[in-house]
Every structure is written in C-alpha cells, then in structure tokens.
Amino acid sequence: MADRELLTQALARVKNRFLLTNVLAERIAQLRKGSKPLVEIENTGHEAIALTEIIEGKLNWELGEPLASEGGKKKAKGSKSKGAQGK
C-alpha cells in the first residue's frame, strides 16, 4: 500500500477523495500496462508512482459531464486522467 503521507499530499492537491480514487485507478492501470512513469522513483510500486505524479503536478484531470436523466435512465461519465500536457 502506498505511503499515507503521499496519499495525504495527493488529496490536498486533488481536493476530492472520489476523484482522486478514479484518477489513481486509471493511472495505475496505465502503468501496469506499460506506460512510462512521468517521475523517476527507484524501487517503488505503481501506486506510489501515480501518487507522486499527482503531487508533482505531472497529471491533469477533468471531470466528465454530471449525471443527466435520459428517459428515466441515468448516464454517468467518469473522470479521465491525462498526461502532463492535457487539462
């Protein structure tokens, strides 16, 4: 499990624990599939790498559209994390 201090620092940057969870899950999946880390950290796991990327401002994210009712059914669009250039 990632260091609690890293988690606290990342939460201070993102401000929303649910959004942080989604951004972390997506970035960790990307790292596990072979994406290159945007930070250089030795001997650490994907979780710590993703948290450090958030803390250092290497990742940006945007919220999807809010829940909208369409014929009684609700649709949700999740958050997306982007590389260092997107926002």
Describe the model:
This protein is α+β, with helices and mostly antiparallel strands and 87 residues long. The protein is built from three helices and four strands. It has helices at residues 4-14, 17-32, 46-55; strands spanning 60-62, 68-70, 73-75, 80-82. Strands 1-4 form a two-stranded antiparallel ribbon. The chain has a two-stranded antiparallel ribbon with strand order 2-3. Strand 2 and strand 3 (73-75) form a beta hairpin. Helix 1 (4-14) runs parallel beside helix 3 and helix 2 (17-32) crosses helix 3 (46-55). The longest helix has 16 residues, at 17-32. The chain starts with a helix and ends in a 5-residue tail after the last strand. The model is unreliable at 72-77 (pLDDT under 50).
According to CATH, the fold-level topology is: Eukaryotic RPB6 RNA polymerase subunit
The fourth-level CATH homologous superfamily is RNA polymerase subunit, RPB6/omega
CATH architecture, by name, is Alpha-Beta Complex
Strand residues, percent: 5-15%
Question: How can the largest sheet be summarized?
Answer: 2 strands, antiparallel
Strand order of the largest sheet: 1-4
Q: Categorize the overall geometry.
A: globular
**Helices and strands, in N-to-C order?**
HHHEEEE
Helices, by number, come to 3
Structural class: alpha+beta
